[in-house]
Amino acid sequence: xxxxVRERPDLHTKSGFIEYFHSYHLAxxxxxxxxxxxxxxxxxxxxxxxxxPDTAEFTFDWGVNAAVLFGRQIASVSHHTSGRxxxxxxxxxxxxxxxxxxxxxxxxxxxxxxxxxxxxLSVKFPNAKVSLGYRADFFxxxxxxxxxxxxxxxxxxxxxxxxxxxxLGG
Length: 170
Fold this sequence. Notes:
Layout: E1 2-14, E2 17-37, E3 40-52, E4 56-89, E5 92-125, E6 128-144, E7 152-166
Antiparallel strand pairs: 1-2, 2-4, 3-4, 4-5, 5-6, 6-7
Protein backbone atom coordinates (compact mmCIF):
# COMPACT_ATOMS: atom_id res chain seq x y z
CA UNK A 1 0.00 0.00 0.00
CA UNK A 2 1.49 3.33 -1.05
CA UNK A 3 0.71 6.68 0.48
CA UNK A 4 1.85 10.23 -0.26
CA VAL A 5 1.06 13.41 1.64
CA ARG A 6 2.00 16.98 0.77
CA GLU A 7 1.26 19.88 3.07
CA ARG A 8 1.92 23.60 3.21
CA PRO A 9 0.30 24.52 6.53
CA ASP A 10 1.22 28.18 6.53
CA LEU A 11 2.05 30.94 4.10
CA HIS A 12 2.90 34.24 5.74
CA THR A 13 2.84 37.45 3.74
CA LYS A 14 3.91 40.97 4.52
CA SER A 15 2.84 43.90 2.35
CA GLY A 16 1.55 41.47 -0.30
CA PHE A 17 4.84 39.56 -0.56
CA ILE A 18 5.62 36.07 0.74
CA GLU A 19 7.68 36.36 3.91
CA TYR A 20 8.05 32.66 4.83
CA PHE A 21 6.32 29.27 4.65
CA HIS A 22 6.72 25.63 5.65
CA SER A 23 6.37 22.73 3.23
CA TYR A 24 6.25 18.99 4.07
CA HIS A 25 6.18 15.79 2.00
CA LEU A 26 5.72 12.20 3.17
CA ALA A 27 5.90 9.10 0.98
CA UNK A 28 5.43 5.62 2.33
CA UNK A 29 4.98 2.08 1.08
CA UNK A 30 4.15 -1.12 2.96
CA UNK A 31 3.47 -4.76 2.20
CA UNK A 32 2.34 -7.06 5.02
CA UNK A 33 1.28 -10.70 5.06
CA UNK A 34 0.69 -13.77 7.18
CA UNK A 35 0.44 -17.34 5.91
CA UNK A 36 -0.18 -20.15 8.35
CA UNK A 37 -1.67 -23.58 8.94
CA UNK A 38 -2.81 -25.38 12.07
CA UNK A 39 -5.48 -27.35 13.84
CA UNK A 40 -9.01 -26.02 14.11
CA UNK A 41 -11.92 -26.95 16.35
CA UNK A 42 -15.51 -25.91 15.58
CA UNK A 43 -18.98 -26.50 16.97
CA UNK A 44 -22.18 -25.77 15.06
CA UNK A 45 -25.79 -26.14 16.18
CA UNK A 46 -29.25 -25.56 14.80
CA UNK A 47 -32.65 -25.28 16.47
CA UNK A 48 -35.90 -25.44 14.47
CA UNK A 49 -38.57 -22.91 15.41
CA UNK A 50 -41.20 -23.21 12.65
CA UNK A 51 -42.24 -25.41 9.75
CA UNK A 52 -42.09 -29.11 8.97
CA PRO A 53 -38.83 -31.08 8.32
CA ASP A 54 -40.52 -32.94 5.44
CA THR A 55 -41.36 -29.78 3.45
CA ALA A 56 -39.74 -26.56 4.75
CA GLU A 57 -38.33 -25.75 8.16
CA PHE A 58 -37.02 -22.50 9.68
CA THR A 59 -34.03 -22.82 12.00
CA PHE A 60 -31.83 -20.63 14.15
CA ASP A 61 -28.17 -21.57 13.57
CA TRP A 62 -25.06 -20.71 15.58
CA GLY A 63 -21.51 -21.83 15.99
CA VAL A 64 -18.04 -21.08 17.33
CA ASN A 65 -14.55 -21.94 16.14
CA ALA A 66 -11.01 -21.77 17.50
CA ALA A 67 -7.66 -22.48 15.89
CA VAL A 68 -3.93 -22.16 16.47
CA LEU A 69 -2.07 -21.23 13.32
CA PHE A 70 1.67 -21.65 12.84
CA GLY A 71 3.15 -19.58 10.07
CA ARG A 72 5.22 -16.78 8.65
CA GLN A 73 4.62 -13.07 9.16
CA ILE A 74 6.29 -10.71 6.69
CA ALA A 75 6.45 -6.92 6.74
CA SER A 76 8.24 -4.69 4.24
CA VAL A 77 7.92 -0.99 5.08
CA SER A 78 9.65 2.13 3.81
CA HIS A 79 8.99 5.83 4.33
CA HIS A 80 10.64 9.12 3.52
CA THR A 81 9.84 12.48 5.08
CA SER A 82 11.10 15.82 3.90
CA GLY A 83 10.29 19.30 5.01
CA ARG A 84 11.55 22.77 4.53
CA UNK A 85 11.21 26.18 6.01
CA UNK A 86 11.54 28.84 3.33
CA UNK A 87 12.26 32.43 4.26
CA UNK A 88 12.22 35.07 1.57
CA UNK A 89 14.77 37.73 2.45
CA UNK A 90 15.44 40.67 0.14
CA UNK A 91 13.82 38.75 -2.75
CA UNK A 92 16.10 35.74 -2.23
CA UNK A 93 14.75 32.32 -1.16
CA UNK A 94 16.66 30.85 1.81
CA UNK A 95 15.48 27.22 2.28
CA UNK A 96 16.31 25.23 5.40
CA UNK A 97 15.65 21.57 4.43
CA UNK A 98 14.95 18.57 6.64
CA UNK A 99 14.99 14.94 5.46
CA UNK A 100 14.55 11.58 7.17
CA UNK A 101 13.62 8.10 6.09
CA UNK A 102 13.72 4.47 7.04
CA UNK A 103 13.01 1.08 5.57
CA UNK A 104 12.79 -2.40 7.05
CA UNK A 105 11.92 -5.89 5.92
CA UNK A 106 11.23 -8.55 8.53
CA UNK A 107 10.15 -12.15 8.29
CA UNK A 108 9.44 -14.19 11.40
CA UNK A 109 7.76 -17.36 12.54
CA UNK A 110 4.68 -16.67 14.67
CA UNK A 111 1.90 -18.59 16.40
CA UNK A 112 -1.51 -16.97 15.86
CA UNK A 113 -4.59 -17.86 17.92
CA UNK A 114 -7.94 -17.51 16.11
CA UNK A 115 -11.48 -17.37 17.48
CA UNK A 116 -14.72 -16.83 15.66
CA UNK A 117 -18.40 -17.44 15.59
CA UNK A 118 -21.62 -16.97 13.70
CA UNK A 119 -25.37 -16.71 14.19
CA UNK A 120 -28.06 -16.88 11.55
CA LEU A 121 -31.42 -18.03 10.27
CA SER A 122 -32.01 -20.78 7.69
CA VAL A 123 -34.80 -22.20 5.61
CA LYS A 124 -34.23 -25.94 5.15
CA PHE A 125 -35.90 -27.91 2.38
CA PRO A 126 -35.51 -31.68 1.83
CA ASN A 127 -32.59 -31.17 -0.63
CA ALA A 128 -31.57 -27.52 -0.12
CA LYS A 129 -30.82 -24.90 2.52
CA VAL A 130 -30.70 -21.08 2.37
CA SER A 131 -28.96 -19.27 5.24
CA LEU A 132 -28.50 -15.63 6.24
CA GLY A 133 -26.50 -14.44 9.23
CA TYR A 134 -23.52 -12.65 10.71
CA ARG A 135 -20.00 -14.08 11.10
CA ALA A 136 -16.84 -12.86 12.86
CA ASP A 137 -13.27 -14.20 12.92
CA PHE A 138 -10.35 -12.67 14.83
CA PHE A 139 -6.66 -13.53 14.43
CA UNK A 140 -4.52 -12.31 17.35
CA UNK A 141 -1.02 -11.09 16.52
CA UNK A 142 -1.35 -12.06 12.86
CA UNK A 143 0.05 -8.87 11.34
CA UNK A 144 3.11 -6.72 11.87
CA UNK A 145 1.56 -3.26 11.69
CA UNK A 146 4.64 -1.29 12.75
CA UNK A 147 6.43 1.33 10.71
CA UNK A 148 9.97 1.72 12.14
CA UNK A 149 9.77 -1.37 14.37
CA UNK A 150 7.60 -4.45 14.80
CA UNK A 151 4.13 -3.93 16.28
CA UNK A 152 1.89 -6.98 16.67
CA UNK A 153 -1.72 -6.31 15.62
CA UNK A 154 -4.97 -8.25 15.46
CA UNK A 155 -6.73 -8.92 12.21
CA UNK A 156 -10.50 -9.30 12.20
CA UNK A 157 -13.13 -10.10 9.62
CA UNK A 158 -16.81 -9.68 10.36
CA UNK A 159 -20.02 -9.03 8.54
CA UNK A 160 -23.18 -10.51 7.11
CA UNK A 161 -23.17 -13.70 5.09
CA UNK A 162 -25.53 -15.65 2.85
CA UNK A 163 -25.19 -19.25 1.67
CA UNK A 164 -27.11 -21.70 -0.47
CA UNK A 165 -26.59 -25.47 -0.12
CA UNK A 166 -28.00 -28.02 -2.54
CA UNK A 167 -28.02 -31.77 -1.93
CA LEU A 168 -27.04 -34.03 -4.82
CA GLY A 169 -29.07 -37.11 -3.95
CA GLY A 170 -28.60 -40.00 -1.54
